[in-house]
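Weekend entry, working from home. Most of the wet-lab plans are on hold until the incubator is repaired, so I used the time to fold the two sequences that have been sitting in the queue since the last round of cloning. Logging both here for the record. First:
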Amino acid sequence: MNERIEKRIELKAPVSRVWRALTDHREFGEWFHVKLEGPFVAGQLSQGQITHPGYEHVRWQAVVQKIEPESLFSFTWHPYGIDPKIDYSKETPTLVEFRLEKTATGTLLLLTESGFDKVPANRRAEAFRMNDGGWTQQMKNIESHVARRQ
């Protein structure tokens, strides 16, 4: 099994626009389907309620790692941690990184989620499978979000 998920998409929007969609907590919440309680701050916990149908019972939690303006936004979280009866805090989280690169027609968005080799064996394959599919959808979500809201 792979240890990391990688996705890339070229967005027809300037880097500054994509950066805002990633790092403004309200905009992030729109395309990611989560109602966040406050802005992203490096080194701090970000949390809120998932709004995606079927997952409204899930509390979104991530620790913001880096905010390097218009180039890198990253956080750690517990992949596919959707069972409210399980305490995921004992697990090593995965690292999600969004990197931006200017292109001739817009912005290349590179997403990497790494660290699946540290996810407990009994949920590793399912977490990888669900997040791989989830990131495929989220790339489509951010693409339509930035196209719709220039």
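Second, folded right after the first finished:
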Amino acid sequence: MESVLALLRAIEGGGGAAEIAPFLAQDYTLSEAPHLLAPAGATRNRDDALAGAEAAQDVVSGQRFVVRRTTCEGNRVVLEAEWSATLLMDLPHWDTGDVIRARVASVFEVRDGRVISQDSYDCYFTPPSA
């Protein structure tokens, strides 16, 4: 579980590619279930995930995870958290400066202290209508 929590701390700390790369195995894969910002979902390899982390620095700042529950079995970690960040650009449903929030459930597989896979199920909260 420590590898997963360290990865989250690296993301909170600004989490560009150089900061999160040490926590991801070479064969890392990320699978995102469909959600508000990616209606078709997405599957990414390590290089894609690192590029996404780098690009995210232009989209959000102040990422924060409030971990609500964790469960571990063998090399599997299941984590429930509330994620938030401040937007640096307009996105569908939100404007620059808005705080975007999601309830996150993720299943991580860890090998030799590095994350080899992550399946994420993100539920974004939309802002109330004006």
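Plan for Monday: verify the second prediction. The chain has one domain: 2-125.
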